[in-house]
Design a protein that fits this description.
Blueprint lengths: L2 E4 L8 E9 L9 E2 L4 E2 L4 H14 L4 E5 L8 H9 L6 H8 L4 E3 L2 H4 L3 H11 L4 E2 L3 E3 L4 E2 L4 E6 L2 E9 L15 E3 L2 H16 L3 E7 L5 E4 L6 E4 L1 H7 L5 E3 L7 E6 L5 E6 L6 E13 L4 E12 L7 H6 L1 H11 L2 E5 L14 H14 L3 E5 L10 E4 H7 L6 E7 H15 L23 E2 L2 E2 L9 E4 L1 E6 L8 E6 L10 E7 H4 L5 H5 L4 H7 E4 L4 H12 L1 E2 L6 E5 L1 H19 L9
Parallel strand pairs: 1-10, 2-5, 5-6, 6-7, 11-13, 13-16, 16-18, 21-32, 22-30, 28-33
Antiparallel strand pairs: 2-19, 3-4, 8-9, 8-12, 10-11, 14-15, 17-18, 19-20, 21-23, 22-27, 24-30, 24-31, 25-26, 28-29
Helix pairs in contact: 10-16
Length: 589
C-alpha cells in the first residue's frame, strides 16, 4: 500500500531549496493542437515540458513534479487511447513517464474510462504512484491506490498525501466503479496524517486534493444528518499540511490560511487545461538534528503557460502517436445535408440536439429522451462527417441510461431545468437566459464570462413529447406538455421509459436529487439499464449505419412568448458563446 520514492539527493540535510511544480485538470490537453477544431494551441503539456526542463536544470536534485487529477479525459487523443487503441500503451501514462512526474492524484474524470483503465492500465503502466487516500477498495477495506508517497529530497523527507473528491457518486454511475467507495477527505486526512507522523516523520507535508473550494456532503454517524467538508475545512481541522494543491473546480488560487494549531498553510491551484503551472519554492533548514525540527520559508505563484515555447523533444517523442490520432479522426463516417447548429441549443430547439435525441432513443428504445447542450461551441457545416466532428457533437464520454419516470416526474424534471436555464421575461427586451444581473440591469461577469444560474451543460431539452416553455411565467410554472410526439395523450400518472445521460442519471446537475427529490436508492430503483459504450461511440455507429444524418425533429418544443424569444435569443447566445469557446470553461462535470 505504501510508496516511497527518492530524488537524487546531494545535501547534508541541513539546508535545501526544494521546488514543487504542479499541474491539474489537464483534461487530455497533451499536444499543442486542438484535434476537434483542427488548429494549433498555445497551451499544452508540450509547452509545460519546456518550463519543467528549465526548472529542473536550475534545481536538478530538488524538484518534485505533481499532478492533481483529471488528466485522462477531455480530448480526442485520450479518447482514442482509452477506448480505441486499447492494446497500445496508455497515452497519459506515457506522458507522465516521459515528463517524469513524481506523483499524481486520481480525479473523478480519470475514473470515467472504467476499471480497465483506472484500476489496470494506468497504475500498471505509470511509473509514478497514483494517490487517493479516500478511494477505498470495498473488497479489502484499504485504499485501492496509494494514500501517500514519500520522497527524499536533498536529505529532507517530503510526504505527499493525495485525495479525490467524495462527490464522485453524484456524477458517475456505480457500474463504472463497482469495487470502490469514496469516503470523506477529513477522516482519511486524519488517519494518514497520524500515520505519517508516527512512521515516516516527514519534514514537509504536501497535500494534493482533487477537490476545490466548494463544500461536499458527507455522511455522519447519524445517518439522518449530512455534514459538509471542503479542502479548506480539512486543512484547517487537520494540522500538519505545509503546502496544499487543489483542483477539480477549475478556479485559480494562490493564498494562505491558518489551521487550528495556528500554523500557516499555503494553498495553490493553477488554471486548468494546461493554462498555468503552479510553483512553490521552499527553503528549509534543519535547526536541531536531535529533534529533527526544521524551519521553512515558502514562496508560491501561478505561472502562465501562454508564451512558453514548445518542447521539440516532446513533439518528436510523441509524433507517431499524434499521427495515429489524426488518422483515427479523419475516418469518414457519412454526411449531413444541413449545418448542425449546436449553439442554438443554448436558447431553444436545435437540429443537433434533435440528432442526439435520436441516438439516445435508438440505443435505449425509450419513449422519451432528455439530452443536454454539451457541445455548443461550434456549428458543424454541411458535408462529409468524420470522427473529428463527433467530438464537436458530444463533448463528454457519457453513457446513456434507460430509466422509468411518471408523467409527473417528467414534468418536474423539465420545470427544474428550465427554471435555471431561462430568466423570467417581463417585457420584450428582457434576457432570455438566466444571467445574474447587476443593480443597473447589466449582466454580471466573472473570469469565465457571464454569470449563469447553471452551467450550459445543464441546459436540457426533451424529445418524444410536444411541449412549450412559457418564460413570461414564474419558474416552475412554465412547462405545458400537450402530447407524446406521435400525438397520443401524455398522462401525468402514467409511467414512461426515458433515455438520459449517465451524468444526470447519477444525480449530476441536481435534476434527480433536486428536481425530483430522489435519493440514491430512488435512482437505483428507477434505473432499468445502462449502455455498455459511450455516446460518441453510438453517434458514430448511427452515422455509419445511416450514411446521412436526418435531423427531422423527434419532438416538438417551443419557447413562449415566441416573438419575445425570437427578438432576443440570438443576442443572448452572442453574449455567452465567446466564453464557451475558450478552453478554460467552468468545471467539467
Amino acid at each position: 500500500m505504501l510508496c516511497s520514492g527518492c530524488s537524487s539527493c546531494e545535501s547534508d540535510g541541513k539546508n535545501a531549496h526544494i521546488t514543487v511544480l504542479y499541474t491539474t485538470d489537464i483534461h487530455g490537453q497533451i499536444f499543442p493542437y486542438d484535434f476537434t477544431n483542427d488548429r494549433p494551441l498555445d497551451e499544452s503539456m508540450a509547452h509545460i515540458k519546456s518550463y519543467i526542463d528549465t526548472v529542473r536544470e536550475a534545481n536538478p536534485r530538488g524538484t518534485l513534479l505533481l499532478d492533481g487529477g483529471d488528466f485522462n479525459q477531455g480530448t480526442p487523443a485520450v479518447y482514442w487511447s482509452n477506448y480505441v487503441a486499447m492494446r497500445k500503451p496508455l497515452l497519459t501514462a506515457e506522458v507522465l513517464n516521459y515528463m517524469q512526474y513524481d506523483a499524481i492524484a486520481l480525479g473523478n474524470h480519470d475514473i470515467e474510462a472504467g476499471e480497465f483503465v483506472y484500476a489496470d492500465r494506468m497504475p500498471r503502466q505509470s511509473k509514478c504512484p497514483i494517490l487517493a487516500a479516500n478511494a477505498i477498495d470495498m473488497r479489502t477495506g484499504e485504499p485501492m491506490f496509494e494514500p501517500y508517497a514519500v520522497f527524499n529530497v536533498k536529505g529532507f523527507k517530503v510526504a505527499v498525501l493525495g485525495f479525490i473528491t467524495p462527490g464522485v457518486h453524484r456524477w458517475i454511475p456505480k457500474s463504472i466503479w463497482p469495487n470502490l467507495n469514496f469516503t470523506d477527505m477529513t477522516g482519511a486526512a486524519r488517519l494518514w496524517m497520524k500515520y505519517l507522523r508516527q512512521n515516516e516523520k516527514p519534514d514537509l507535508v504536501v497535500g494534493i486534493f482533487h477537490a476545490g473550494e466548494e463544500s461536499y456532503p458527507v455522511q455522519t454517524e447519524d445517518t439522518a444528518k449530512t455534514a459538509f467538508e471542503s479542502v479548506h475545512s480539512v486543512v484547517c481541522e487537520i494540522p500538519g499540511f505545509d503546502l496544499v494543491f487543489l483542483g477539480h473546480d477549475h478556479l485559480a488560487l494562490a493564498d494562505t490560511i491558518e489551521n487550528v494549531a495556528g500554523e500557516k498553510v499555503y494553498l495553490l491551484e493553477p488554471i486548468a487545461h494546461a493554462g498555468e503551472i503552479a510553483r512553490a519554492d521552499i527553503w528549509i533548514t534543519r535547526t536541531d538534528k536531535k529533534s529533527a525540527r526544521v524551519q521553512k520559508s515558502v514562496s508560491i505563484r501561478r505561472v502562465p503557460v501562454k508564451g512558453m515555447k514548445i518542447s521539440a523533444d516532446f513533439e518528436q517523442h510523441f509524433a507517431a502517436c499524434r499521427q495515429e490520432v489524426d488518422s483515427f479522426l479523419n475516418r469518414p463516417l457519412g454526411y449531413t445535408d444541413e449545418t448542425l447548429r449546436g449553439s442554438a441549443s443554448l436558447t431553444g430547439p436545435s437540429n443537433l440536439m434533435d440528432f442526439i435525441h435520436q441516438v439516445q432513443l435508438k440505443e435505449t428504445d425509450a419513449q422519451i429522451s432528455f439530452a443536454s447542450s454539451l457541445s455548443v461551441f461550434n456549428d458543424i457545416p454541411a458535408g462529409e462527417l468524420t470522427m473529428r466532428q463527433i467530438f464537436s457533437m458530444y463533448k463528454y464520454e457519457n453513457q446513456v441510461v434507460k430509466m422509468w419516470m411518471t408523467g409527473k416526474d417528467i414534468h418536474k424534471f423539465l420545470e427544474f431545468g428550465y427554471a435555471r436555464q431561462f430568466a423570467q421575461m417581463h417585457n420584450p427586451d428582457d434576457y432570455v437566459l438566466n444571467f445574474q444581473l447587476l443593480p443597473d440591469g447589466s449582466v454580471a461577469y466573472d473570469r469565465f464570462g457571464p454569470v449563469m444560474a447553471t452551467p450550459q451543460y445543464n441546459f436540457t431539452s426533451a424529445a418524444g413529447i410536444n411541449y412549450t416553455v412559457d418564460i413570461s411565467r414564474p419558474p416552475y410554472q412554465r412547462v405545458h406538455i400537450s402530447s407524446l410526439s406521435d400525438g397520443s395523450p401524455f398522462e401525468l400518472d402514467q409511467s414512461y421509459t426515458v433515455a438520459i445521460n449517465s451524468y444526470q442519471a447519477a444525480g449530476g446537475g441536481g435534476f434527480l436529487p433536486g428536481g425530483l427529490g430522489w435519493s440514491e436508492q430512488d435512482i437505483r430503483f428507477h434505473t432499468i439499464n445502462e449502455s455498455t459504450h459511450d455516446m460518441c461511440y453510438y453517434i458514430a455507429q448511427k452515422i455509419r449505419a445511416d450514411g446521412r444524418i436526418s435531423t427531422s425533429a423527434t419532438g416538438n418544443w417551443q419557447v413562449l412568448p415566441y416573438d419575445w424569444w425570437l427578438a432576443n435569443h440570438q443576442r443572448d447566445i452572442n453574449l455567452l458563446l465567446p466564453y464557451l469557446t475558450q478552453k478554460d470553461t467552468k468545471p467539467f462535470h
